[in-house]
Design goal:
With 336 residues, the protein is mostly helical. The protein has 17 helices and no strands. Helix 13 runs parallel beside helix 17. The N and C termini lie far apart (55 Å). About 4% of the residues have low confidence.
Amino acid sequence: MFAVIALALPWLLCLPLWITAVDLAPGTTLGAAAAAPSGPGDTDPGAVLAMLLPQMLVGLMMFAPSIAVLVAGRWVDGMPWRRLLVAVGLGTVRTQPGFPPARRGAARLIGVLALALLGTWAIAGAALVTAFLVSDARPQLAGSVFEALTRGEPLTVVVVAQLVGVVLGSFVNTVPAAGEEIGWRGYLQPALTARLGLVPGLVLGGVLWGAWHAPVLLLGYNFGLYDLRGVGLMCIACVLLGVWLGWLRGVSGSVWPAALAHGAFNAAAGLPLLFLPAAGEFDVIRAGPLGLSGWIVMAPLALGLVVVTRRAVRRAQRRTADAALLGGITRADEHG
């Protein structure tokens, strides 16, 4: 029921975009802000609405998985509120299926939150460097979007402003990102990993997460493609990124590290655009953070996280078995 509701709601929300045949390809509707006139008297209300409506609907889409959790968990499964909050990672920390025992405590959670933030920025930075290695794009300042943003301001001021924007944006984006993460990593991931195992559960969860973006992907969103190729590319990206987010959820027992990492990734995802020609084409399939450059960074990370997690689970199982054996021997000695 959760998957049906979560996948259906975005189609309902995006009906206005399909009815008006909005083009969401990079550099068109969502890129209109960069090309829009800066003078207040030159602003076209229709153009502003055309630019803002897709962004507002995409923002509302991000809360669809949480709504699906509410309907499926509370009203269909009849879970009490307290149990539901704990189940999705908003309450007491609980060990997740396929992961080692989650440690409780504020210090532990803060540490994982810091790792989520810094790790995601590192992923975005590595993807940015990789983008210039695997595509024809080359970093440049003259004629770039970054230069256009300066508008006579000192370069240092603009650099600091962009970095501050990424930092603040990471926290601000955590709110809508939590709308997704409560559903995907909070509710769905434990159910899938409990039934299917760690790797199949993470992969299927990533595929569903990628397919969830279909209503906007088929309008050109992210990749500039208007068919199932865009959905396929997004599924690959979501499987790889989903392992990182799912690992954060699993080792912490909380959904907040995954939500923070998701928000940080969204905040830093546009960095490659700043160093490209303002009027040029950008190969998002190769150089975008959800494209080839991002895959190259996230694939080995995902593999490493799976290996580390499996080893940690085996160690925890051995410790539990040893403790049970020792307890049995002790009890036998006492009775003897």
